[in-house]
Specification:
- The protein is mostly helical.
- It has one domain.
- The chain is globular and about 40 Å long.
- It starts with a helix and ends in a 6-residue tail after the last helix.
């Protein structure tokens, strides 16, 4: 192997190893799959789809009404980091126009995190 190829090989191995590690998967999940419709969607509806936020008449830049919308927020919008208050825009907010937010109870965050770690199925 040429010496010039070694740094690229090392970088590739490092990236492959680091991609497999999820820094937020240290949560105890219930046995069986977490259900989006029975467990996750009610949490989102009660805390995110309220007036002026991510519901029908939303002031937020996106809605969280369907599985696809919530799944997209996980993939592209860092939903988990926002609800864990590990992002610059912690959610949910008490008032969408005020910067203060309240954190969901860890028990509810754990349900969402388990659903994410289990593959975000629409079940």
């Amino acid at each position: 192997m040429k010496k010039t190829a070694f740094p690229f090989l090392a970088l590739g191995l490092f990236l492959a190893a680091s991609c497999g590690k999820d820094p937020v998967s240290n949560v105890d999940c219930p046995s069986g799959l977490v259900s989006f419709s029975a467990q996750v969607q009610p949490i989102i509806n009660q805390n995110c789809n309220v007036s002026g936020c991510h519901g029908f008449m939303n002031e937020a830049p996106f809605q969280l009404l369907t599985h696809q919308q919530v799944d997209s927020a996980v993939i592209y919008g860092n939903l988990l980091f926002a609800i864990k208050h590990q992002s610059p825009l912690p959610m949910p907010r008490i008032d969408p126009l005020l910067p203060d937010a309240y954190k969901l109870p860890d028990s509810l965050i754990n349900i969402i995190e388990c659903w994410i770690n289990q593959g975000r199925q629409n079940n």
